[in-house]
Design goal:
The chain has 361 residues and is α/β, with parallel strands linked by helices. The protein contains 13 helices and 12 strands. The longest helix is centred in the first third of the chain and has 21 residues. The protein is globular. The chain binds magnesium ion. Magnesium ion binds next to loops.
Length: 361
């Protein structure tokens, strides 16, 4: 790449519905497929960048794809400069707001632009950001699958060499929650870090009650015990519980994260690269976390997040998920229980075109 920066030429989007090998159950409902919008940003230099956004429900798939497509005239002809574009689009959408579908569309563009920029420089994203690739500790997911189901999956992760697992809990009684934790520990062994996730299903008072019972169980963290945006409620729980509280996947942008940190709502943080504002948002989030020495993990997006965690001073765990592997040319590699970030050019997102065609929505 010479001194003249490539400019943005076109945006192409495709919607896919990728079935999961097994439905993932949570205390707030089951997820059986991933509705995804795949974005390609093309530049006049012939380089393209790619990104994935996850719409959770198929009802939001088409509107999100359309919204991303509608951004093309706003940035066509602009320099391939993600920070500049992010600032411009944030200003453009200030009146409407940059959460929800708008936030997802902006993140789709941002992640694709960073990917394109890395490719234009023929660099892995980690190197473009000034870091080096390093192995990360991934943890595996366990659904809301009861005592035998959770134990079985815990054992399977342990067999793959994983040193962390996270289960969905929030059963009708706390005794059942405790039984699931103990069954996982028995199945996976004492060396396994065990996290649990309530997916916002409790009131703060219920959360306090349940944490009292869980505090003796040696959990690595308890995630989103109450509503994600009830920072005061979370702060109350975090203040009284001995177990660390983990939040972040539902923070829209770094200001949400700053508010949560100000309220002392969470001991750890785990931003979602889409909701926090793409790679640009993640970098700001990593700076906030590092200023206070708060350990930072990710939510989903294992390929991009692994690269970003390599550039995050307080990097903690990598949330691993293989849900989107079918549509990726090169899914994140796990070896001996560690996530291996290779030195492939870009952010790790490139398509398996046959699968993309097969799952087209
Ligand atoms: Mg969660």
């Amino acid at each position: 790449m010479g001194h003249s920066s490539p400019t943005i030429d076109a945006i192409h989007v495709r919607a896919v519905r990728v079935p999961m090998s097994e439905p993932h159950r949570t205390a707030s409902g089951a997820v059986a497929e991933s509705p995804l919008v795949l974005t390609d940003v093309h530049t006049d230099a012939g380089v393209s960048g790619h990104s994935i956004v996850f719409t959770y429900t198929p009802a939001a798939l088409k509107p999100t794809a359309e919204l991303i497509r509608n951004l093309e005239p706003l940035i066509k002809g602009d320099a391939l400069a993600p920070l500049e574009v992010a600032q411009k689009l944030a200003a453009r959408f200030r009146l409407l707001g940059t959460q929800g579908l708008v936030g997802m569309a902006l993140a789709a563009i941002d992640m694709a632009l960073w990917d394109a920029l890395a490719r234009a420089h023929r660099l892995p994203l980690v190197r473009l950001l000034g870091g080096t690739e390093k192995p990360l500790r991934p943890y595996g997911a366990i659904g809301y699958d009861g005592v035998p189901g959770s134990a079985k999956t815990a054992e399977a992760w342990a067999r793959r060499g994983f040193t962390g697992i996270k289960a969905k809990i929030g059963y009708p009684t706390v005794q059942e929650d405790v039984a699931v934790v103990r069954a996982m520990r028995q199945a996976a062994g004492d060396g396994m870090a065990i996290m649990v996730d309530y997916n916002q299903s409790l009131s703060p008072v219920e959360a306090l009650e349940r944490l009292r019972a869980l505090d003796g169980e040696g959990l690595a963290w308890v995630e989103e015990p109450t509503l994600a945006h009830d920072y005061a409620g979370h702060a109350r729980v975090a203040g009284e519980a001995a177990t660390p509280i983990q939040c972040g996947e539902n923070w829209w942008g770094v200001l949400d994260m700053q508010h949560a940190i100000d309220a002392q709502a969470s001991d750890y943080v785990m931003p979602d690269v889409m909701k926090i504002g793409g790679v640009t948002g993640w970098l700001k989030a990593a700076a906030l976390a590092s200023a206070k020495g708060i350990l930072m993990s990710n939510h989903l997006w294992p390929e991009v997040s692994a690269r970003l965690l390599c550039c995050t001073p307080t990097a903690h765990w990598l949330e691993y998920a293989d849900w989107w592997n079918p549509i990726l040319a090169e899914p994140l590699l796990i070896e001996n229980g560690l996530a291996v970030v290779n030195d492939t050019v870009g952010s790790g997102v490139a398509w398996n075109e046959d699968a993309v065609a097969r799952f087209a929505a």
